[in-house]
Amino acid sequence: VRRRQEVHVVMGNEACDLDSAVSALALAYFLAKTSPTAPKAAFIPVLNIPRSDFALRTETTFLLREHSIPDASLVFRDEIDLAGLHRAGLLSLTLVDHHILPSADAALEEAVVDVLDHRPLEQEWAPSCQLTVELVGSCATLVTERIAQGPPGVLDRTTAALLHGTILLDSVNLSPAAGKVTPRDVACVSLLESRFPELPAHDTIYQALQAAKFDVSGLTTEQMLRKDLKTVSSDELLLAISGIYMDIEMFLRRPGLMQDLEAFCQARGYSALVAMTVSFNERHEPTRQLAVYSQRETLRSTLCRALEEATTPCLHLQPLPSPWSCISAYAQGNALASRKKVLPILRAAL
């Protein structure tokens, strides 16, 4: 701010999964190499979590360490004052892997100049904002396409390897059965491999990332809930949606679960929490289950009813036994309805 240097931040979403992190890193690198404003602006990829949460992003820490990218070289959300930069008129913001800023960041909307996302568009942006919103399996696919359209020679092996692993993880190893992959994801993986034939075999990198992602062995319940967390809110309610990588039965039997859930929600002001568990069989097909927790019975039943009666998409929920009166549990028959598809249902219910 003192030097009046313009700062162009590339930032992913608050879950800061591998797709958000790698999309931010790769696109900021590309912009720094190719942007006409590069000499006078600093291009900074920002991981949209506090540094203390980074250990929870086990697949991201694994992939970055594999490619010798030290944690110390990364910039986290609690290490940069975006609001201060914006007030000083120095901030440009590119959003990757999301296009709706949380209410706490509403003031930053004016600074957004570019959006790359692979969710259905839920918010209009000014015509001056460059918008790339396409329903592909991975935001890293859109970043790869953007880099491929740029000058030749910018893409290096490390960036290619990060994008390659991310697209494979997001698309469930390009498996049609999982319902995430599109022809554009396949084309980008092929493009990266044609430029860097030494990239690892699909199964090798996918299985290594999948093992890292689902490795929650060392985490407390609180860390597990924080590991893959999204929120939706209304004027007076804040709802947490946590992706959990274990069977719902095992999760519900964790020692001290009720105290942990209550403390977690109280500390962060959540009125309710929805845990979406996912596991995969050897054919990469997902099994999904849901748990809805709230001490407020009317709110819990409102959320449960919205999930049970949802039609876009229909979740085909089957009630499961729950050992706790303030948790409703379900098997989700529609295993292709990922959290991305469930979030709008919950947002509408609030």
Automatic annotation (TrEMBL):
Keywords: Hydrolase, Manganese, Metal-binding. It holds the Pfam family DHH. The keyword S-adenosyl-L-methionine does not apply. Its cofactor is Mn(2+). It comes from the Eukaryota. Residues 206-350 form the DHHA2 domain. GO terms for cellular component: cytoplasm. Transmembrane segments: none annotated. One of its GO terms (molecular function) is exopolyphosphatase activity. InterPro entries: DDH_dom, DHH_sf, DHHA2, DHHA2_dom_sf. The keyword Metal-binding applies. PANTHER family: BNIP - RELATED, EXOPOLYPHOSPHATASE PRUNE1. Belongs to the PPase class C family. Prune subfamily. This is PRUN1 Exopolyphosphatase. It comes from Penelope pileata. The lineage of its organism: Eukaryota, Metazoa, Chordata, Craniata, Vertebrata. The gene is Prune1.
